[in-house]
Amino acid sequence: MNPDTVQIQTIELLTKLVSIPSPSHHEAKAAVYLTGWLNARGFNAHVDEAGNAVGVKGDGPREILLLGHIDTFPGELPVRREGDLLYGRGAVDAKGPLSTFAVAAAQVDVPPGWRVTVVGAVEEEAASSKGARHILAQRRENHPTFCVIGEPSNWDRVTLGYRGRLLLDLKLTVPFSHSAGEGRLPAEQAVDLWRQIEAYCRTINRAREAETAFTRLESSLRHIASRDAGAYGHVDLSIGFRLPPGITPAELEADLTDLLGQLPTGTIAETQFHGGEEAYKGDKSNPLVRAFLRTIRAEGGQPRFVVKTGTADMNVVGPAWPDTPIVAYGPGDSSLDHTPHEHIDLNEYLQAIEVLRGVLVTLMG
Q1: d(CA 243, CA 260)
Q2: CATH number of the 3-162+279-363 domain
């Protein structure tokens, strides 16, 4: 096929995927489109029971799993092209990396003994990671030989790890006292609690001598709302925590439960902890990493390593596959994730495809 035609089709795939809205829980149309694209290029592709788009090329026992996600952060953006920049929800996070996976895998010949699996997983943005957990359940015994997670890192960077996560939904029920009295009002007690949580995180970080964002425990107040109900006030809070290596969700939950036990007399706290994921950081001395470094250099880049302060499906599968080299890779500037200005440079997208294609060829000999 004419190289110009291939490039046009490559850009069309990403443009079409970005043009199909697919926020978490609404990925079906995009998954059907991607599986159709893969089937037309020699894959055995289908939408699985979880709703993932899955395409397999080759039938050998050794598997290279390219695990991207097809869902996006909510909020549609107008899809438009400005020169080499493609704007739209998911262009960076993470349909750019997913399209990179699909195109690179389509362009390589898979030798006997190998198979390449491309996955557009669902609900990565929903904190449930339904798609990745389904893939994990299918590979409890037979782990992939190599795994690449589809997340933006720029074409010449390789991501080795992500911080963990814990989410807390909290409802405080507080008996009212007169605003002229000494008692703390419901909203004030909620603010007091938030300040105590911030102080707890600072104490932990000082004790751990945490100097970088990846090694710090951090909290974020995602939502707070108060309302009155007769003699009582109610305050709803949603709090997110980013966990460094060495702090598990269970340990943090226990400490927070102790902290909530110190609320003023009469105040009742109803809690729901969810979305717990351990931090994960992979090894940088293995054939997968070496293949990326070698190929990035061959494409004229200076490869760099990075660790991310958020979470990804690497947190789900990484701890379960200790014998599988794992990195995250994909084109795009991750600082644009979830923003109203999300866009990807199509030149970088094409460059990342060349890198990943070279990595696949190297790994499969």
Answers
A1: 19
A2: 3.40.630.10
- What is the rounded distance in angstroms from the CA atom of residue 121 to the CA atom of residue 119? 6
Element (H, E) at 332: none
Global pTM exceeds 0.90: yes
Q: Residue 3 to residues 6, 7, 8, 9, 160: CA-CA distances in angstroms? A: 5, 6, 9, 10, 33
Question: For residue 127, what pLDDT is reported?
Answer: 86
* The token pair that represents 125 in the structure block: 């943005």
How many Cβ atoms are within 10 Å of 337's Cβ, its own excluded? Answer: 18
Q: Which residue has the tokens 């399209």?
A: 99
DSSP label at residue 41: T
- 190-220 confidence digits (pLDDT tens): 999 999 999 999 999 999 999 999 999 999 9
Q: Where are the domains of the chain?
A: 3-162+279-363, 164-277
The Cα 260–Cα 123 span in angstroms is 31
**Which phi and psi (to 5°) does residue 268 adopt?**
-115, 135
Answer for the pair 145, 64: CB distance below 8 angstroms, yes or no: yes
Bridge partner residues of 44 (DSSP): 56
Say how far apart CA 70 and CA 299 lie, in whole Å.
Answer: 27
Terminal CA-CA length for the chain: 25
CB atoms within 10 A of CB 197: 19
Q: What's the residue count for the chain?
A: 365
Q: What is the DSSP string of 295-323?
A: HHHHTT---EEEEESS--THHHHTTT-TT
Domain range 164-277, CATH class? alpha beta
Catalytic (active-site) positions: 71, 124
